[in-house]
Amino acid sequence: MLLVVAVASLAMPSSAASKPSAPSITFDRHVVGTAGANGWYVSNVQVYWTFAPQPTQTQGCDAVTITAEGATQLDCIAWWGQTRVEDPVTISIDKTPPSLTSVTVKHGNRNVLLSWTASADTQSVQVARTQGKRGAAKVVYHGTGHAFRDKRLRPGAKYQYTVTAYDPAGNAAAKTVAVTGTGPLVGPAPGDRVSAPVKLEWVRVKGASYYNVQLVKDGSIFSAWPRSTSLKLPRRWTYHGRRYRLRAGVYRWYVWPGFGELAKAHFGRMLGGSAFVYIR
Prior knowledge:
- With 280 residues, the chain is mainly β.
- It has three domains: 3-93; 100-180, Sandwich (Immunoglobulin-like), CATH 2.60.40; 185-278, Immunoglobulin-like (Sandwich).
- The chain is 0% helix and 58% strand.
- Strands 16, 18, 19, 23, 24 and 25 form a six-stranded mixed sheet that branches. A four-stranded antiparallel sheet has the order 1-2-3-5, with no helix packed on it. It has a four-stranded antiparallel sheet with strand order 11-10-13-14, with no helix packed on it.
């Protein structure tokens, strides 16, 4: 946004007066401020008028600096003898950007759902995605909604999403979130650094009545059969008669869907594998 000086000119021959041969009247309005969008200004605005020749009388034509937000009506009237010229103008100011109070991320299988909460004066929202450290920003959404699902992400790839809210004047508020793409195992994201409590989450498999979750660090150390699509890891457990506890380091984990009765151990293909870093 740039500081602009807008000049509106009103010129009329003096035929409106009694002497057609007299010089014409020039009546200029000057508006100085930072222009936004849709005719709004996003800064204080100075308004003043210049005349040639000087009028014999004026009303409402003194220079004024407008600081109040909203619409301000001005009306400059000037007289040259019996000739009267009026210049009404409305100056609209909005210096306050909208608010963007939260941006939340929900991972899916090769997709991510971004949700946001914006103030009532938000006119539109833009979402730009950047992949990697040197990737170019790409606008992937522009509209009036409160959520957007980005698809075809690569598991393990790093992304940044910048959500920007705009009001009618063009003021903007933005928040940026970092996202790691996930596959069927959606949480923790690959390579995430997590601390207790550790919650493992994966996508639902149609027809599955339970799942087998295995945690590996220096060999198989944990196995469980939850019926839901999430599992909170205990800090201590026993596996094959040996006691374990969560220690700092890299853990890999895998999930298989199970069908029918647990006792029959009818498993489908492995849903996926991922890894996280546990820190204490």
